[in-house]
Design goal:
CATH topology: Rossmann fold
Bound molecules: nicotinamide-adenine-dinucleotide
CATH class: Alpha Beta
Distance between the termini: 37 Å
CATH architecture: 3-Layer(aba) Sandwich
Number of domains: 1
Number of strands: 7
CATH superfamily: NAD(P)-binding Rossmann-like Domain
Number of helices: 7
Structural class: alpha/beta
Strand order of the largest sheet: 3-2-1-4-5-6-7
């Protein structure tokens, strides 16, 4: 329970990987603020954490709204005294199309949520961590933040941007005891894959050295380690959670 006494926020915490991160941080002793656009699902996560004996609260947040991040941090500081851990995890895939066929609207939405949304988040979180004299930021990038892929270039571009943002924050705020790292999951079983065909799922499994796709808990475990003081000398790095996807 080394996260006892820490307050953590998790964006996109209502479902999928974010839900697993919120649950894992709470199991580790943190007070967890689940932030998401989906109030019903987010409240269910909070209920489950409380039933398991943890401390959790829901705040509605659309990560593509800069002012909403400021408001969330303001509420966290007023209600719970400060912020120690920020897991910026909310993300969307956008359209699966060749680059020249991508719509401007889809490009803007993917960049807004996945990259600008993360910038708006850290822009509000960092001052709170400076007031707290330290903190840990863990951003959910993707294996597609490290390599390219056909048919999903806005997402690939946004996730490469997330990694650049992560490294820059580490360089800027390391001396203030704020660590900033990213995780880079390969294919993980979540709602992201709801529309994928059986054939696509088999193909996806084969792209990983382990011969299977990952599960949300395998990502949450790495995020929890990076968030924890146990990772006190880790900053500015990207940690693939990829079953060997990037080894080829
Ligand atoms: P998911 O669709 O299961 O969950 C995403 C969550 O983010 C949902 O609760 C959703 O409501 C929330 N969300 C979406 N837009 C939001 C917004 N504007 N503001 C606030 N919340 C918003 O997806 P997931 O698979 O759990 O993905 C989580 C993160 O992991 C994303 O950043 C994604 O890019 C990344 N990722 C996922 C995979 C994968 O295979 N599942 C692989 C690599 C990276």
């Amino acid at each position: 329970m080394s996260l006892t006494g820490k307050t953590a926020l998790v964006t996109g915490g209502a479902r999928g990987i974010g839900r697993a991160i919120a649950t894992r941080l709470a199991a580790g002793g943190a007070r967890v603020i689940v932030c998401d656009m989906q109030t019903d699902d987010g409240s269910l996560v909070v209920d489950d954490i409380r039933k398991a004996g943890g401390d959790a609260h829901f705040l509605r947040l659309d990560v593509s709204d800069p002012d909403a991040h400021v408001s969330v941090i303001d509420q966290i500081e007023k209600r719970w005294g400060g912020l120690d851990i920020a897991c910026n995890n909310a993300g969307i895939t956008g359209e699966f199309k060749l680059t020249a066929d991508q719509t401007i609207d889809s490009w803007r939405r993917v960049i807004d949520v996945n990259l600008s949304g993360m910038f708006y988040g850290v822009r509000a979180q960092i001052p709170a961590m400076l007031r707290r004299k330290g903190g840990s930021i863990v951003n959910t990038a993707s294996a597609l933040g490290l390599v390219g892929r056909r048919d999903i270039s806005p997402y690939v571009a946004a996730k490469h941007g997330v990694i650049g943002l992560t490294k820059s924050i580490a360089l800027e705020y390391g001396v203030h005891n704020i660590r900033c790292n990213a995780v880079a999951p390969a294919v993980i079983k979540t709602d992201f894959l709801n529309t994928a065909s059986e054939e696509r799922l088999v193909e996806a499994a084969q792209q990983h050295a382990l011969g299977r796709i990952g599960n949300v808990h395998e990502v949450a475990e790495v995020v929890a380690f990076l968030a924890d003081d146990a990772a006190s000398f880790l900053t500015g790095s990207v940690y693939p959670v990829d079953g060997g996807y990037l080894a080829a």
